[in-house]
Amino acid sequence: TSRSFFLSLVGTLFGEMSMYGAYNSSVRRFASAVMYINPQLPTVYGLAQCTPDLSPGQCWHCFQGLQEQTRQWYDGREGGRIVGVRCNIRYEGYQFYDGMANVRIGTHGDSSSPTESNGSKHRQTLIIVLCVSVTVFCSMLVGCLLLIRRLRKGAGNTKLEQAHKRNNSKTEEALKLWKIEESSSEFTLYDFPELAAATDNFSEENKLGQGGFGPVYK
Q1: pLDDT tens, position by position, 30-88
Q2: 23 with 56: CB under 8 angstroms?
Q3: Can you tell me the distance from the alpha carbon of 218 to that of 207, in angstroms, rounded to the nearest whole number?
Q4: Which pTM does this prediction carry?
């Protein structure tokens, strides 16, 4: 009377069991499970296993293939088993394996299953690792940006200092030439303030004309 509902529960059992067997059982690729819903439905036990040479993804894919076959061949049955070359899966209305189940769903008095607890811890660890990684990455990025900015600023200051030194050296050379020419020439050399004073700050009244090299002042 509850065939479709029971099959959906078996599908849930297979999904949880396959996930644990493929990704949470290290190299064993093994999982056992138990699921209790209510007194009207039987407690269902399950087991899934892959050969240990399969990767987690390959094991999961193999389980999915068996689950599809289980829906086809065991429609409405309370138990069944399919044994493949690389993986096998089984479920029954009684416990057919020894020990505690790796996956517990809705069992008596259980507020949370070991799988849920392990998954929660795994998610918390993953979140912490991601947060720490992002923080370290951001810190390194900010540090790199500050270092680049400082290097560029230092390079700019160095260029300014070099330009200032070049200007000073050119000024010194010009002064030396000025003194040499003044001492050996019949012409008098004037600096800029003297020229500005003599031409009344280059006023238009003292402008004589315009030549090829610029304005000419009296």
Answers
A1: 899 998 877 777 788 999 999 989 888 899 889 888 877 877 776 777 788 889 899 99
A2: yes
A3: 6
A4: 0.46
Q: Do residues 89 and 14 lie in contact, with contact meaning Cβ atoms separated by under 8 Å?
A: yes
Domain limits, the chain: 1-105
CA pair distance 43, 92, nearest whole angstrom: 9
Residue 43 Rama label (left phi>0; alpha psi -120 to 50; beta)? beta
Contact 59, 47 (CB under 8 A): no
- For residues 53 and 25, the answer to whether their CB atoms sit within 8 Å is no
CATH architecture of structural domain 1-105:
2-Layer Sandwich (3.30)
Angle made by CA atoms 73, 107, 16, in degrees to the nearest 5: 50
